[in-house]
Design brief:
By secondary structure, this protein is α+β, with helices and mostly antiparallel strands. It has four helices and 14 strands. Helix 1 packs across helix 3 and helix 3 runs antiparallel to helix 4.
């Protein structure tokens, strides 16, 4: 069985599913760790498939709210000479009442010396059928990942979890143990509520200050992450990341439509070759 390798592969799928999508899709993230993380996702997915519900901040169980929306992402970067570079993409995302999510990600790619084109990548996460589907406009191949049952994942985790040393063992060679940098302590600020495209959203801002020398910087600088969440839809409707190293990135959900999305969004388009991948597959 190659459950461990398959789990790691599943964790990478979340790159196509940014944080604004439905809660179930968020469960697989690059910060997750292998088999155990995927097992947790599948447990949650099974619960959603059976009860079609989400858990609110105060432990309330309520039906999953379906929606369709456009995700507008704007990045503004100011270069050292004062030049401003602005990029904007618009993609689609959706969630149905069973917990299935659809997300499109749009990327720039060079088509010539100065010109760029657009490439779209798509992801469908289906907790009902335990599958995740990926395809893109650059290829006529759709990959369908069949996720194992949670019990199988837990068994694989038990078999594959390596023993962890109780202490650093570099002293065998007379080396000095590295001194880890103290973790940065972000400051959280409650921003209250405001209406964003017809939805009431609660906001908070996390501000992190990097001291001199933390990343080779000769002066301190700050990074902020602002999130506005609709409790009604249980998802982020706006996110603003301000980092002087990369610029200001704003993600906003627009053209939000309540109700069941088009079922065709969750299916592989015609003309694509479907490749199935299973947990026990050798490659």
């Amino acid at each position: 069985m190659r459950l461990s390798r398959f789990a790691i592969h599943l964790a990478s799928i979340s790159i196509l599913v940014p944080g604004s999508t439905g809660l179930l899709a968020q469960e697989i993230s690059p910060a997750s760790h292998g088999v155990g993380a995927v097992a947790g996702v599948l447990s949650g997915a099974s619960a959603a498939a059976q009860g079609c519900s989400e858990v609110g901040q105060q432990g309330r169980i309520r039906p999953i709210e379906p929606y369709t929306a456009n995700q507008k992402t704007t990045t503004v970067q100011i270069l050292a000479n004062g030049t401003t570079i602005t990029r904007e993409t618009i993609a689609k995302e959706a969630r149905d009442s069973s917990g299935r999510t659809f997300h499109e990600s749009v990327f720039d790619f060079p088509t010539g010396d100065v010109e760029t084109g657009k490439q779209s990548m798509f992801n469908v996460f289906d907790p009902v059928n335990h599958i995740s589907i990926n395809w893109s406009t650059q290829s006529k191949v759709a990959n369908v990942f069949h996720m194992p049952e949670p019990a199988q994942m837990r068994q694989a985790q038990t078999r594959s979890s390596p023993a962890r040393p109780s202490q650093w063992t570099g002293l065998v060679y007379g080396a000095i143990p590295p001194t880890p940098a103290a973790p940065l302590q972000p400051i959280r600020e409650d921003l209250g509520t405001k209406n964003i495209n017809g939805l009431e959203a609660k906001g908070n801002r996390m501000t992190t200050t990097y001291p001199v020398g933390r990343v080779g910087n000769d002066q301190p600088f700050t990074v902020t992450h602002e999130t506005w969440v609709s409790e009604e839809l249980m998802l982020a409707v706006m996110q603003i990341d301000d980092d002087p190293r990369t610029g200001v990135r704003t993600m906003e959900l627009t053209d939000i439509e309540r109700g069941e999305p088009d079922p065709a969004l969750f299916q592989v388009p015609e003309g694509y070759t479907v490749k199935d991948q299973y947990p026990n597959q050798q490659n």
